[in-house]
Specification:
By secondary structure, this protein is α/β, with parallel strands linked by helices. The chain has eight helices and five strands. The protein has one domain: Rossmann fold, CATH 3.40.50.300. The two termini are 12 Å apart.
Amino acid sequence: MENYVITITRQFGSLGREIASLVAESLGIPLYDRTVFEKEAAERDETLRSMVRFSEDEAVARVDRMASPLGIGSSLKQDRMFEVQSKLVMEHAQRESCVIMGRCADYLLRERENVIRCYIFAPYQARIVNSIRVLTGTAADPQRIIEEVDKARADYYRSYTGCEVNNTRYRDIFLNSNLLGAEGSAQLIVDAAKRKFGLS
């Protein structure tokens, strides 16, 4: 059978990461996210290593990273990071079935047949509650972080695709994670994958 890919784009605080992990685990396929692609990009092009921001405080590091989707560096370096990561997205999709979080993967894989493109969202109050859990250990205001990360992700997506992050053109499933929770949402995506790709 030809490889299949499930892409997950999400609002901050919508449980998208947890859902993506559950989908990958249930289907027995790898999950590729920003951390993996940054590591692979840095191995491929050492000039990109300086763009990854590190912090001793893991929670603070997550917030910093989420507000800078392509790392810290000049626009030329960010363009180079996107170029290298885009190639990696295409290579993984060609080589194996997988779940890919973010990285404009839905847009990059728009010509492929065996792809389900998901957008995970949630009501604002639910996102605040979920964000407080994610941001444990920081003094950050969850409302401010939601606003900053949403804006950063929207700008990033628009810059490299010419579309809004919540567009319908490159999406197959829009899913309110608050309806069924992380496990129920993941199962819905798994069921869709089994039906579309003929999985047992």
